Batch of 2 targets.
Target 1
Amino acid sequence: MRRAQLVREDIRDLTQIQQLDQLDSLVARLTTRSARQLVFGNLAKEVRVSIDTVRRWVEVLRDLHLGFLVRPWFQNVSRSLRKEPKWFLRDWAAIEDAGDRAETFIACHMLKAVDGWNDMGLGAFELKYLRGKEKREVDLVVVRDGNPWFLVEVKQKAATIGGALRYFQNRLGVPHAFQVVIDADYVDADCFARPGTAMVVPVRTFLAQLL
């Protein structure tokens, strides 16, 4: 019902898009691909419209708060991916895959923090992600005044800190790197107190450091 209202009423009334069946097909695909890279060429083939049309439609859906895009950070990253953004739904609770739901949950909170820090005039903040062509990836990166400030890798359960998190922290000289664990008890600690060291951080502890 929500999707039908978005496509058949809101978008119909607020835009000049007429291919509503194809747009509905795009929305259906996007609702199953949160926390994943969007390859616009593949989406265009699946929905049977042009790449430019898919890009415009995704922007419309972003403007209507169905989701948001996180683009790759590529400065000083050799062989980095520069084009494909990651897509995140704003309604993270409806995502079936546990890993995608966890990453989307964290991304939504980090976007809120980034927007808040910008609104408060604390600097110029951006939310990005990292992925090289060797397939090393870090889920999310907060950039502050043009430099990566902290990296976040999201895990459902406690695990050894991933090699990609350490690699990018060392390669880019990022002050903070966090492996945020969903199924972990709160610890009363300042996770920003130990710059230069990658840390495993319970999700409740991490979120307590944000807005």
Target 2
Amino acid sequence: MIKKSQKSVTVQVPATSANCGPGFDSLGLAVTLYNTFTYELLPNEKLELTVEGEGASFMKASPRNLAFLSFFKLWNKVMKKRTGLRIHMKNKIPLSRGLGSSSTAIVAGLLAANALTGKTYSKEALIALATELEGHPDNVAPAILGGFTISFMQEGKAHSVRLMPAKPFQLIALIPAMPLATAKARAALPAKVPMEDAVFSMSRASLLVACLLTGNLTDLPLALEDRLHQPYRLPLIPGAVDAIAAARQAGAFQGIISGAGSTLMAYAPLSANATQIGEAMVQAMAAHKMQAEYKIVNIEKNGAKIL
């Protein structure tokens, strides 16, 4: 159980890019961009929050704040006493951009509570708890496990398989100034899709996993294609189609919507000029009067960790 001397813990959680093109609600990867959370137990039952970076102007201490909600979800299962809690966030992951910012809060709270109650939950159990809060595992699984993850639901419980690509490649995240709420992105999806489109995306998702496992990246331009969600979400992001085309022309394998958007993620060979790809995507968005910035990132191998 909790040690009397351990009253605080700091957790670092990576950004994630879900769906990875054709793997809707099932594929995801962790990337080298992080939010950091420090949790401190308080002798009373007060909730306190300080924030640096993203969300500093409006985030408040509340039982409904995901960083608090997730902490107490695990804490209350293990401990028989209530506690106050102070959280300090250092947020570098843009909000509502398809990079898993909400998942970082969920994962941080669970890992912090697990550490402060004696580490009784395995990573698999933490993924299951996180999925209960997030609704689907494609962001929380890579945030916890790192690498590239394949997630599935069995009898209402989330399970995930982690792998690392056999051959490295580059990732360039194009982050528009415009946020895109997940609810809006999901509302754009049809209730049903043609069988042909379902088979198309299923085959592409299978091909993507094969490319990563074998290290044969030649087919990545095809493997990252999708017909389940991207055709319906791309119109929500001004300039996205042209930005993806610009990325390919500049040397990328392919560009996709990261998560629900609005971030676009370009996959590129190591031989490509990542800066040139990023700048080409920014210029394509600017032609549609959309400001954007780009970040060159790598796959985060280890996932969330206690610092």
